[in-house]
Amino acid sequence: MIEDVIVEPMTERFILWRCLHGGSLARDTIDQWSPGNKMPWTRYRQRNMPLLLKITRTYGACAILARDGDKIVGHLRFYPKAVCSLKGAGGLCLQDDPAAGPADSFADSSFPDPAQIEDKTLVVHCLMTGSPQREENPYQRKGIGTRMVKALIEWAKANRWERIEADSFEDLPIIYGITGSAGHICPALPVIP
Description:
This protein is an alpha+beta fold.
């Protein structure tokens, strides 16, 4: 049941190193893919695991996950704006090569200490519930995305981030409801009034 879906920040216990395009993922399925799939999964895993571990250890989290039992059925990825602007970050899409994705060596970059970051802005990279590539998606339009956004706002407040920026391909009612701004590019959402 949708009410049983748990929404929480990603931790080192389970690093969601790829997205949900093919469907939900769990510890026992995240490293499995069909042999005919042309994605360079092994290379992406080798790049993304150390990167996400470093971001999580440095800043506390970089994703809000929605979990139905042991399956991840939604995620909201976010990064400090200061990290997004570093050389090699690209667009930080974990399932893409540079320039949309990070450089293979991006995890070796020096990330700014949280206390030294002046612009306390988080940038939302993507929000996904279920798989947009599946014809039936029992997790979309059930409030899970809204719950993940609210969890991000609470996490950001608790960790002293001041703003959240989000670009979208469609209007996001939760952002409109909080900021009063509509459109595909949202102004920075103030976290701490």
